[in-house]
Amino acid sequence: MTEADVDGVSAVRVRGWQAAYRGLMPQAYLDAMSVTADAERRRSWFARRSPEVADLVAEAAGEVIGWASVGPARDPDIAPGAEELPAPRPTAGELFALYVTPRLIGTGVGRALLAAATDHAGTKGFRALYLWVVRGNTRARRFYERAGFEPDGVEETYEVGGRSVPELRYRRPLTAGTP
């Protein structure tokens, strides 16, 4: 991903949230999401992100159609010291995000991005890859389960637009150097 991809990534992310979380998060919150505002935040983040984080994009005809972000795991129970990167180096990675243009879900774009993110995590020496998924997002849960991820029993909630949204943490073991 380059800075030139930020607008496209934001469009994929916002449209992805609006499609995937309909009925799982307050509709007013989803309707109020702005590609422009997201792109502004993403540009700021892009300028100061850790070099340990890899942002991968899928493109078709010069248009961003998917985005994945992967890096060292952040949860203290699986990555002690993660808040003090780069040392000690976590042995687990985290898939922070994976979004595909909603009309292209089911076409293989998500599988390709997940494979690339998993490969990246393996080449960084991570022994496991974690991710968080909204509990009610059955499509995403099936997708990750088909890719070898399993819930690890940890659940957290966060607030979105005044509503508590439960997330489940998933884990997939990796062999260093291979996806």
TrEMBL record:
One Pfam family cited in the UniProt record for this chain: Acetyltransf_1
Domain (N-acetyltransferase): residue spans on this chain: 1-175
Keywords from the UniProt entry: Acyltransferase, Transferase
Keyword Acyltransferase attributed: yes
Molecular function as annotated in GO: acyltransferase activity, transferring groups other than amino-acyl groups
PANTHER family tied to this protein: AMINOALKYLPHOSPHONATE N-ACETYLTRANSFERASE-RELATED-RELATED
Protein name: GNAT family N-acetyltransferase
Protein's organism: Streptomyces lydicus
